């Protein structure tokens, strides 16, 4: 493998999932999502679908009615990782990873996950409307969405855009669109620091292994910029809320 291939492979290598979320917090969210045996679980913007796979496993695949899952994403490498994970967990017959636009998916499911991916629908409000059409009546949505935890700096607004609201604004956006809130929790500082660290760590390790690679200067500059933006711009400012919503 050429070092540039190692570079591509290193990008998400240290991440369990692509969101600020501890194991313990993930387990809480899955309990609140309450996946029932035989349920259909859909993850829009699934990445490699670690949480989707856990949701399907939580519903159970061994009984008379197996839980089934579908993950939709546009990143072929992430989908391939999801298929490998599904095979490792013996869930490959129960979970499909589909290359596609999340907003174009119309087949409803009992439990829908959309974490860090509302931008693909055109923002929070548009996502809450679109997701209402793919959650079956009596179903639940696990939404992972950014919010301003404290007043945004100009830098944070430039990076994340004007669509972001405070937590009250996010909860109200869901209420106004007919969703009922079943659970609310937010990522804490340690989850954020771990998320940002693991996002950088794959390529930091690549840099330490291949310091002479022709791409090293560019990668070093990108990572340094991101770290500066985080610690100097949006650490403690951008929050991530997890809402379990029903309708
Ligand atoms: C912040 S990541 C979150 C991934 C995953 N939900 C998780 O929590 O690990 C956002 C994901 O949205 C995907 N994405 C971007 N545009 C998309 C689109 N138009 N349709 C589907 N997925 C998209 C990206 O490839 C990426 O995997």
Overall 3D geometry? globular
Which architecture name does CATH use? 3-Layer(aba) Sandwich
Report the average pLDDT across residues: 96
Helix content: 40-55%
Ligands, deduplicated: S-adenosylmethionine
Largest sheet report: 7 strands, mixed
Number of strands: 7
What labels describe this entry?
seven-stranded mixed β-sheet; 21% strand; alpha/beta; 44% helix; 7 strands; globular; 247 residues; binds S-adenosylmethionine; Rossmann fold
Topology:
Layout: H1 3-10, H2 23-33, E1 40-44, H3 50-59, E2 68-73, H4 76-88, E3 95-99, E4 109-115, H5 124-132, E5 135-148, H6 154-160, H7 167-176, E6 180-186, H8 189-209, H9 216-234, E7 238-246
Parallel strand pairs: 1-2, 1-4, 2-3, 4-5
Antiparallel strand pairs: 5-7, 6-7
Helix pairs in contact: 1-8, 8-9
């Amino acid at each position: 493998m050429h070092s540039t291939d190692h570079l591509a492979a290193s990008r998400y290598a240290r991440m369990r999932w692509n969101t600020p979320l501890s194991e313990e917090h993930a387990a809480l969210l899955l309990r609140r999502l309450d996946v029932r045996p035989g349920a259909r679980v859909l993850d829009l913007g699934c990445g490699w679908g670690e949480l989707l796979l856990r949701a399907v496993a939580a519903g159970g695949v061994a009984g008379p009615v197996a839980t089934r899952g579908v993950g939709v994403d546009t990143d072929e490498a992430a989908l391939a990782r999801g298929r490998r994970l599904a095979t490792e967990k013996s869930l490959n017959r129960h979970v499909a990873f589909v290359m596609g636009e999340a907003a174009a998916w119309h087949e409803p499911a009992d439990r829908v996950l959309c974490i860090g991916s509302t931008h693909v629908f055109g923002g929070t409000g548009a996502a809450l409307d679109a997701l209402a059409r793919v959650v079956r009546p009596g179903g639940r949505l696990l939404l992972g969405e950014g919010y301003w935890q404290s007043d945004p700096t100009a830098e944070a607004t430039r990076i994340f855009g004007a669509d972001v609201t405070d937590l009250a604004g996010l909860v109200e956006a869901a209420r106004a669109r007919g969703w009922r809130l079943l659970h609310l929790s937010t990522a804490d500082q340690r989850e954020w620091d771990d998320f940002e660290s693991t996002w950088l760590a794959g390529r930091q390790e690549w840099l330490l292994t291949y310091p002479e690679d022709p791409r090293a200067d560019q990668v070093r500059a990108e990572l340094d910029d991101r770290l500066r933006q985080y610690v100097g711009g949006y650490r403690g400012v951008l929050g991530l809320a997890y809402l379990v919503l029903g309708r």
